[in-house]
Model the fold of this input.
Amino acid sequence: MSKMQLGVIYGSRTCEHDVSIISAVQLMRSVDREKYDVIPVYIDRKGQWFTGPALLDMKTYTSFDPYGKGITPVQLDLTAGSGALLHYVPAKGLFGGGKEEVVARIECAIPVMHGLHGEDGSLQGLLELAGLPYASSGVTASAIGMDKIAMKRFFKAFDFPILPDCALTRSQWEKDRAGTIAQVEQALPYPVFVKPACLGSSIGVSPAKDRAGLEDALELAFSYDRRVLVEQGLDKPIEVNCSVLGFDGDRRPSVLEMPNSGTEFLDFSEKYLAGNGGSKGMASLKRVIPAPIGEELTKELQDLSLRIFDAMDCKGVVRIDYMIDRHTGSHYITEINTIPGSLAFYLWQATGLNYTRLIDEMVACAMKAYAEKERNSFAFTSDILSGVQLGGKTGGKLGGKLGGKTGGKL
Done:
């Protein structure tokens, strides 16, 4: 039986570029090579696409050379269903024309992106145009999950538990700093958390316990994003996370974890640089699995995770993060990660599903979603074009008149 050509797409123009590389290389090392030929598709910080065997080695990225051995620049053929990665070969002679060669063909893609230009729905839209199955949530869920402001408005519409917040813009901040701070202070008590709207991995996120801290936090957040979310903080909350795997009603939750950082705020350094984080990403984080919060609350958060997954029409693997108020016991959604770091494989290992099998299930979700889409009708036959008459400067007719400057009838 022939192997599936599995493309793993990662990197891109984002502050979370390096985190994406770690997650992707980790995944590629866990793929069952008896079932799949792995095709790395690396997008560098400039947005250029590459493939080749050298991309399987982490050392390649410490000083990336686009002309290095085992690295080929490519572009994706957007012809629906092609899946071809094309490499342009320039002409050797003075008058000869260059040509494009097919380096590889992708049958299914696993986006392992973090942040803008990949996790936010942009890559998903490209893959939809290219007619390729892919193992992540679709355009809508990805876009909502990336934008913290839109995400919270979505959750509020479904009456999911969220903390109070306010949304700000960079232009608002630059025109009236004092007024912007006053707006936050009128809406929320200290402490607050300040977050760039469309960033992850805790980049640009900081707590503020007073006005001076808020000013610094806003300055930092606006350096990363035009829009910023300010959210009410909790006093030393308990953080727990839950993953969900599946598609279209056939989905299940993982066990819950409790990230055990020993700090009030789990920042980028805690997530990726502490201990072995530089090579293992989120998988190296000290954590407690299962989270010791009792069976009743565990079940409640697992059920809520399924409801969120369904409401957003997610696909593949997601991770939903929560905060529990240790004083009241109330719980709140922090965010949904539609492509979580390390694909949350550590949560699924605790259920007996190892990373290799998790990848199999993600591919199965991708193929099922693709098959469902192919059931849709994309053709509607009509004679509308046969009735069009385009008439020079004055426009034309379409069952009536298309009249120059004054418009016409349709």
Observations:
- Confidence is low (pLDDT under 50) at residues 265-279, 400-404.
